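README: folding subset

This subset contains proteins for which both the sequence and a predicted structure token string are available. Records are stored as plain text. Below is the entry for Nucleoside triphosphate pyrophosphatase (226 residues), shown exactly as it appears on disk.
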Amino acid sequence: MSAVILASGSPSRYTTLTSAGITPQVIVSHVDEAALQAAHPTASVAELAQLLAAAKGREVLSRIIADAALLPAAPAGPRVLIAADSILELDGTPVGKPHTPERTREVWQAMGGRTAQLHTGHFIARLDPVGTPEQPAWQEAGSRTQTASTTIHTAALSDAEIDAYISTAEPFDVAGALTIDGFGGAFVTGIEGDHHNVIGLSLPLARTLVGELGVAWHQLWDMSTQ
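--- output ---
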């Protein structure tokens, strides 16, 4: 089994992987998202999602290469690092995590009953072991980046429904004030594309990119949990 590192603290991404038979080690990235976005004022929403995913993956990758102790000794073999970032696009404008009730209400008043696009940038890298058992080390053996986009059709919510959704606090820390794997699932009337992508990680795309790095997707399955 090749171990997987998830460079994200997102519970949804972790659950998506574990539900697919993969138990990742989580190493949360430290990237100033606002600063990166400010540094790329002409980037499209899809491009911005990819820039953020790559920055988060590269940040964790550099820490692992600098400090091999971040990864446990077992299992042997290569590791696969997965980073992702999701941004909702509405009318050509990025809609990030609202964080507050006021902003959540604004988003849903603008988005309800309409169509939006959810872009998730993916960064996947392979790390190969080098050095000795006494002095382990890791080196990058390649990486891939790609953005997956999914079209989302939303319901027109009443003020009471928006207030109720706000009271759950669920939409505060998710892209576009919306997630389909919780209370918000009832407010999505249709999806065109990979539904996993809306949760924050496209499994079909991840499988393709991992395969391009010379690792078969099924090698990542944690059969000990079966």
